[in-house]
Design brief:
The protein is 43% helix and 15% strand. It is of the alpha/beta class and 460 residues long. A seven-stranded parallel sheet has the order 3-2-1-4-5-8-9, with helices on both faces. A six-stranded parallel sheet has the order 12-11-10-13-14-15, sandwiched between helices. The chain has a two-stranded antiparallel sheet with strand order 6-7. The structure holds uridine-5'-diphosphate.
């Protein structure tokens, strides 16, 4: 009987309206989720900011509406201002009216279909009030790990003892943070340059997650089992862990930058598990001297490497101007530098041996899914938390703790690629890869959670 009810509801062509934050690491999981829900019979409308607007031609089965977010007025500050909350707060103000107008317009459209719910990124906390006003259930997509939300919830953002600005000289620098012992003070200083603003942001997103109708997480139960128990105690609304989203479909098409696919045939020519893949994602920046240290380390280490240097990533450079002299000669055919890679395919390629990453949550999950051990160089926001989980909790990577310095980098690469320690990491992450597949298979935890989500949305 239960099944009949589900079938009847899913044939009524109900629509879901989705609203991603306009950054690559948020657009990817939202569009992947949209595809997943679409295959379960829902129609999809995407409301999106003008800034970083997704390529709608890759999604002819969705309807897109663009709203004026005015982000371009501040976008040039992204390279120099490390305070993420400045940009997020701006968007939560600039989008209110355009979003509300757009949504109200869509709800007023005549037709025989109904809108089941709104799914918005947790970072767009303002949308809960809009949803309440328009009497539409809002489900939150939180694109980070569960552990990150617990850490954010616990950290002493407003502490008088300013623990977010410690330096190497402070005696506590290497110590664990009492509120979240997995983390050390030296990591939490990286999370934000503005603890006060971060504290306000965290309160806003957590409050509005609690006020929502449910939370969708891009993770899987077996990876974060203990944290999931804590989360379900903290949040009274239902949580759905149906990740990793990208595994539901062959490859993603929500890339904002064109992916250089020529490297796949280069990878085909490399020995199994020999290539060091290096990428720091879509927003992290590094200084010229850090860039040069990376280059020297890659030149010295003697292993094949694939290095993603996003244009604008090196502060003060357009692209590769500050490479050390004779670097290309030394690199020869052993290395490749590209502007942007088809990352999921690179990680899945048998030649890829390790992933030197900034530990954005998508990158971290993608590495787990393909069983590729990591070298962790987190930059900011949730990345230091993810890095600590990777190195200390799951023991599937090496934390490059002391920054970008060629000898330290070479040691970290050797530890993962050549040492027994690295072999053990590879065994552990290979186990996790198998667990991912089990959780996505019929009857597995993610499979089940997706069914629960579909039923839940159908019940609205
Ligand atoms: N990515 C990609 N090509 C690259 C580097 C990254 O397609 O050369 C994708 C990657 O697969 C991931 C996303 O961009 O899905 C980055 O998200 P993540 O959360 O790892 O980091 P962010 O960019 O948000 O810092």
């Amino acid at each position: 009987h239960g099944n009949n009810v589900t079938d009847l509801r899913s044939t009524t062509h109900r629509r879901i309206i989705m609203f991603p934050l306009p950054f690559q690491g948020h657009i990817n999981p939202m569009l992947q989720l949209a595809n997943i829900l679409h295959t379960h019979g829902f129609k999809i409308t995407i409301i999106h900011a003008e800034y970083n607007s997704p390529n709608s031609s890759n999604y002819p089965h969705f309807t897109f509406y663009s709203i004026k977010d005015r982000f371009s007025e501040i976008a040039d500050q992204l390279a120099t201002n490390r305070d993420a909350t400045f940009f997020l707060k701006y968007l939560n103000e600039s989008c209110v009216h355009p979003f509300k107008n757009c949504l109200a317009g869509l709800l007023a459209e005549p037709g025989d279909e109904t809108v089941a719910c709104l799914i918005t990124d947790a970072g767009f906390y303002f949308t809960q009030a809009v949803a309440d006003e328009l009497k539409l259930p809002r489900i939150v997509l939180r694109t980070s790990s569960l552990g990150c939300v617990l850490a954010y919830d616990a950290l002493p953002w407003h502490s008088k003892k300013d623990c977010f600005h410690l330096s190497k000289e402070d005696s506590d620098y290497e110590a664990s943070v009492p509120e979240y012992p997995l983390l050390k003070f030296k990591e939490i200083v990286k999370i934000t340059t503005n603890p006060q603003g971060m504290g306000e942001f965290v309160t806003n997103i957590l409050d509005q997650m609690k006020a929502s109708s449910g939370i969708i997480w891009n993770t899987f139960k077996e990876l974060e089992e203990t944290d999931l128990q804590t989360i379900t105690q903290h949040f009274q609304v239902p949580s759905f862990t149906l990740g990793p989203f990208h595994k539901y479909f062959p490859a993603s098409s929500s890339s904002l930058i064109e992916q250089d696919r020529t490297i796949l045939s280069w990878l085909d020519k490399q020995p199994p598990k020999s290539v060091v893949y290096v990428s720091f994602g879509s927003v992290a920046h590094i200084t010229e001297s850090e860039f040069q240290e990376v280059a020297h380390a890659l030149a010295n280490i003697g292993l094949p490497f694939l290095w993603v240097v996003r244009p604008g990533m090196v502060i003060g450079s357009e692209w590769l101007e500050s490479l050390p002299e004779k670097f290309e000669e030394r690199m020869g055919d052993r290395g490749r530098i590209v502007k942007w890679s088809p990352q999921q395919e690179v990680l899945a390629h048998p030649a890829t041996g390790c992933f030197w990453t900034h530990n954005g949550w998508n990158s971290t999950l993608e590495s787990v899914c393909e069983g590729v051990p990591m070298i962790c160089s987190p930059c900011f926001v949730d990345q230091p938390v993810n890095a600590r989980y990777v190195s200390d909790a799951w023991k599937i990577g090496v934390f490059l703790e002391d920054g970008f310095e060629r000898v330290g980098i070479e040691t970290a690469i050797k530890r993962v690629m050549m040492d027994k320690e690295g072999e053990e990491m590879r065994e552990r992450i290979t186990c996790l890869k198998k667990t991912v597949n089990v959780s996505l298979d019929k009857g597995g935890s993610s499979f089940q959670s997706l069914n629960n989500l579909v039923d839940y949305i159908s019940s609205f």
